[in-house]
């Protein structure tokens, strides 16, 4: 089977088919999520707080993210792999965005990039798309602007919702193939989804979006304090602590390695 493409996502929007996107930061989880059938893997800059031990996504660099994206591409066979352009790697001008986008496609072999912002980044998007770099947009509570927002707060309540809708239309016009809507009221996400020809991907944005995305450590119950919009389908943190403690006990009691793990 060939990899999913942005043409599949466009067809699913037309057909009203909903789909999931999941973050991944390494080849092992990429192969598991790919085998499970996830069609789109996001190498998010959420690697900052979920993988690299940073407080948030702001310190993540292109040089840190490219090896992770390359690992996700190598670990998957069918998924479309989208890589985040980290904070500071595209805002300056369209040329900067293009240079960074090209690095992700050439060095990581990612299939598309994602960047944050509305009207202010449309020239960057047009330049990337013109040169063959597919772009996913990201609106609402965009984590790279957490300092400007003064925390992780729902965006687009009341009249600022109209501004987010205008941004979404501008991103579509600029050539984005999909848009992530993060932490916005469900009613606004519904309006935007109905107004767009391209798919919306919700995270804390209600049920109306065409697709949903979650950070994999939240989905699997590995995150210590998950956000309210996440739902844990497994309790991997407890499972892993149990597993590690069982092994520790066997090592300490002289039970591991047993006969099955021993060579003669
Ligand atoms: O970096 C990330 O994981 C993201 C998702 C939350 C959409 O941008």
Summarize the structure.
With 264 residues, the chain is an alpha/beta fold. It has eleven helices and eight strands.
Topology summary:
Blueprint: H1 6-15, E1 19-23, H2 27-36, E2 40-43, H3 47-50, H4 62-75, E3 80-84, H5 94-107, E4 112-114, H6 122-130, E5 135-140, H7 146-149, H8 160-174, E6 178-182, H9 186-195, E7 200-203, E8 211-214, H10 216-219, H11 236-252
Parallel strand pairs: 1-2, 1-8, 2-3, 3-4, 4-5, 5-6, 6-7, 7-8
Helix pairs in contact: 2-4, 4-5, 5-6, 8-9
Bound molecules: 3-methyl-2-oxobutanoic acid (KIV).
How is the biggest beta sheet arranged?
A: 8 strands, parallel, barrel
Overall domain count = 2
State the end-to-end CA separation.
Answer: 43 Å
Shape label: globular
CATH fold annotation of the largest domain: TIM Barrel
- Rg over C-alpha atoms, rounded to the nearest angstrom: 20 Å
Number of helices: 11
CATH architecture call of the largest domain: Alpha-Beta Barrel
> What's the β-strand tally?
8
Strand order of the largest sheet: 1-2-3-4-5-6-7-8
């Amino acid at each position: 089977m060939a990899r999913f493409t942005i043409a599949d996502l466009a067809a699913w929007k037309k057909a009203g088919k909903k789909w999931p996107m999941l973050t991944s930061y390494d080849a092992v989880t990429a192969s598991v999520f790919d085998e499970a059938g996830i069609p789109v893997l996001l190498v998010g800059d959420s690697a900052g707080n979920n993988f690299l031990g940073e407080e948030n996504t702001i310190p993540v660099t292109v040089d840190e993210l490219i090896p992770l994206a390359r690992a996700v591409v190598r670990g998957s066979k069918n998924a479309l792999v989208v890589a985040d352009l980290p904070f500071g790697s595209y805002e300056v001008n369209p040329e900067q965005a293009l240079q960074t986008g090209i690095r992700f496609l050439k060095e990581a072999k990612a299939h598309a990039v994602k960047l944050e912002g509305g009207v202010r980044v449309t020239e960057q998007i047009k330049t990337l798309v013109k040169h063959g770099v597919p772009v996913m947009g990201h609106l609402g509570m965009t984590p790279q602007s957490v300092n400007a927002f003064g925390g992780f707060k729902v965006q687009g309540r009341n009249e600022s919702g109209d501004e987010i809708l205008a941004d979404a239309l501008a991103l579509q016009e600029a050539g984005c193939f999909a848009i992530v809507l993060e932490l916005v009221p469900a009613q606004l996400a519904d309006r935007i989804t109905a107004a767009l020809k391209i798919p919306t991907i919700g995270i804390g944005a209600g049920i109306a979006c065409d697709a949903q995305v979650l950070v994999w450590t939240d989905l699997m119950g590995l995150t210590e304090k998950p956000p309210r919009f996440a739902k844990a389908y497994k309790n991997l943190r407890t499972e892993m602590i149990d597993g590690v403690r069982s092994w520790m006990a066997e090592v300490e009691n002289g039970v591991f390695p047993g006969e099955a793990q021993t060579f003669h």
